[in-house]
Design goal:
Oligomer: single chain
Number of domains: 1
Strand order of the largest sheet: 1-2-3
Structural class: alpha+beta
Number of helices: 3
């Protein structure tokens, strides 16, 4: 799904939930600048990967 930065900011909760089912691409000035996705790891698993 592609959304503008303003739309993403306004409806963050909606896109947070949707990101578990599909990738969200955030655009600014009609150019994609960020992909928003939720990692499927627990916080402890993330810390282990960083170490």
């Amino acid at each position: 799904m592609i959304v503008t930065a303003t739309e993403f900011k306004t409806n963050f909760g909606k896109y947070l939930e949707m990101s578990t089912k599909e990738d969200i691409f955030i655009t600014r000035n009609k150019k994609a600048f960020e992909e928003f996705e939720i990692p499927l790891l627990t916080p402890s698993e993330l810390l282990q990967q960083i170490s």
